[in-house]
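Q: Got a minute? One more chain.
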Amino acid sequence: MAKWVYLFKEGKADMKNLLGGKGANLAEMTNLGLPIPQGFTVTTEACTDYYTSGKKITDEIQGQIFDALKTLEELQGKKFGDTEDPLLVSVRSGARASMPGMMDTILNLGLNDVSVEGFAKKTGNPRFAYDSYRRFIQMFSDVVMEMSKTFFEGILTEIKDAKGAKFDTDLTADDLKEVIARYKAIYKEKMGAEFPQDPKVQLMEAVKAVFRSWDNPRAIVYRRMNDIPGDWGTAVNVQAMVFGNMGNTSGTGVAFTRNPSTGENGIYGEYLINAQGEDVVAGIRTPQPITKLAEDLPECYKEFMAIAHKLEDHYRDMQDMEFTIQEGKLYFLQTRNGKRTAPAAIKIACDLVDEGKITPEEAVIRIEAKSLDQLLHPTFDPAALKAGEVIGSALPASPGAAAGKVYFTADEAKAHHEAGERVILVRLETSPEDIEGMHAAEGILTVRGGMTSHAAVVARGMGTACVSGCGDIKINEEEKHFELGGHSIKEGDYISLDGSTGKIYLGDIKTVEATVSGDFGRIMGWADQFRTLHVRTNADTPTDTRNAVKLGAEGIGLCRTEHMFFEEDRIPKIRKMILSDTVEAREAALNELIPFQKGDFKAMYKALEGRPMTVRYLDPPLHEFLPTKEEDIEALAKDMGLTVEAIKEKCAELHEFNPMMGHRGCRLAVTYPEIAKMQTRAVMEAAIEVKAEDGYDIVPEIMIPLVGEKKELKYVKDVVVETAEAVKKEKGSDIQYHIGTMIEIPRAALTADAIAEEAEFFSFGTNDLTQMTFGFSRDDAGKFLDSYYKAKIYESDPFARLDQTGVGQLVQMAAEKGRKTRPDIKLGICGEHGGDPSSIEFCHKVGLNYVSCSPFRVPIARLAAAQAALNNR
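A: Always. Here it is, folded:
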């Protein structure tokens, strides 16, 4: 019989895949002899079984859950469902990858109308007993039955107002009985049944709810954002309850062994006296700093600090711990490697190396490559900040500078972000349902919540600036405005947030580019030692090139030449070329473009200081360059001595129904070889002149795009070689050059051995290769991919993360076939996937020489390449 349930004492840390991160750590802490409320874990395999069994928990698994519950009853000396002294449990999820705030928790499970009275008598604390039951009804209804929290919050607020109570803690036992009666009435009204009284039914429904939560919309979005496979499933942890809401010697808190925003070494956290865990995370009451515990309960504080240090030493990483104090006794509820900002991750990794706890290799592995994006985010311009008006301040929950228009719901934030606006999401408090709006926002501002609230933890994970717990705000979410510092801010008004200081500013404050600091340099230095893949950049301007070089790019893997034609003084010339009817007229127009194109190449070669550059010849269909505005059409007609009608006719003739598969790439050079001649002249002359002027030894890399046939490549290559040799002769130069192609058509991958006879290098254009392999357009896929995620047909966007099964197979095949023909062929990737860590690991495994990505993703690619090398040793 399979084992579906493990007591904490039966597990250990390396069973994370089976027990989930939380379950494995609870097992490890039990083995370390730490004060853990005991319990058991229902495995991730049971979650998978729940889905394959048609969303049912089998009798076998249910039997094992109740057997484990019996053992827990013996350990605790209490009976589950007892009317005098009931064993109460918490039910929490725990996936193998940490997903803070994504999953659901139920506390105080096991209470009902009868046992709450026995519980009140046994504890001698009726207020506490009814408060625990009130919380259980609210959580069970929300998490298990999916009733809206707002029903319950409304009732609680009404009763608090009627009794003149500021906090929940001010309500008496009788007040809470009234809350419970109204909670149960609303439950019956909405659910059409009484609130369940059988604890066993409560438990099984809660376990099912945790399994279901693995597939709720916010968890699916989070998995897609963090590359977590959908078939991993989540474990369920059932744990004996300890109570932080038993009075003033009880409390609950969350703490980190180092500061998760800055990485500073020192305990960092918050707690609430007379509260349960959800109060801290949800931000209902504003908590106290952990250091105040030294005054309130000094013995507990001493014990807490000793265990916190022990856990960090044991796991050799910064820990995020949840704890509860029940009547002066300390319990640890969980520990995990804490989520942190990128600056904190880098500081912590370097400090741990300096403290001798980890090696540089481990330091490099531990930093999430994608998170480096945060380090390259803007900060406020100091002068603009000085002039800015501070209208309030709160907790600096996640660093960074953000300015944008205020919106009050996640849906609005997402919609306006997609419309191209910069957005600040303002909420009373965020909840896991807000994940997509939080992702879309430049910054997040909340009225409630501490440094460990949902908003703070999730924003830090995303690298989004967040200011939390601004209690001075008077917010009206329905009417879409808030009051702060004497100002009324309406939806669509600009505000600016400084997530590093917690200050809130009126208006749109200018931001400036981030700079790279010392520890960042150390990590990058280590990464460069360990990686075997080279990292280039996709850049079309000298400014982008300089930025990329500053961030460690080793050259340009993709220079898109068409981007150089769209400037005002150039576009008329390319239009003249397109609309000319004779070779001579086209050549005359193209000759006017040579100085511009050559000037751009020279500037980029100079910025590269001798590093290589792959120049892709003209790629888009010609109609993309043609005028659409009436005044532009008139100006072109006048310049070419043609009628407006003639120009319009020609434009209509050139328009393509499916330009992705139309007259573009090398097909243009087959039809109009003069385009390839002009571009070759510009590249060669630029390289020769820069070599003469600056002494850089440049070997131009000329890339012919969209090839699908060896003869097609040979045809264009012959034109290039003839022109290049003519330029060398004219200039008296012996400069070398390479000619290669972009593999972006499936046929090119399938016939790569033949194509390699003509190509000295391949660069995989995975954007187009993905479009052609899947048969859908990148521009339109966004309209229907959401349905595919919901239906679980795809787990991730194939344009953001390389589809290794299909597109990857073509890349691997082309690499192998290309090498067979030409063993020294150089292989790179220049699609958007060149900056995605999981795609970079794939490129390492199939033996590419380099990846190329946008300038700001260069550090991400350098780190991901090092991680790929270390993980695949």
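A: The first helix runs from residue 16 to 31.
Q: Perfect, thanks.
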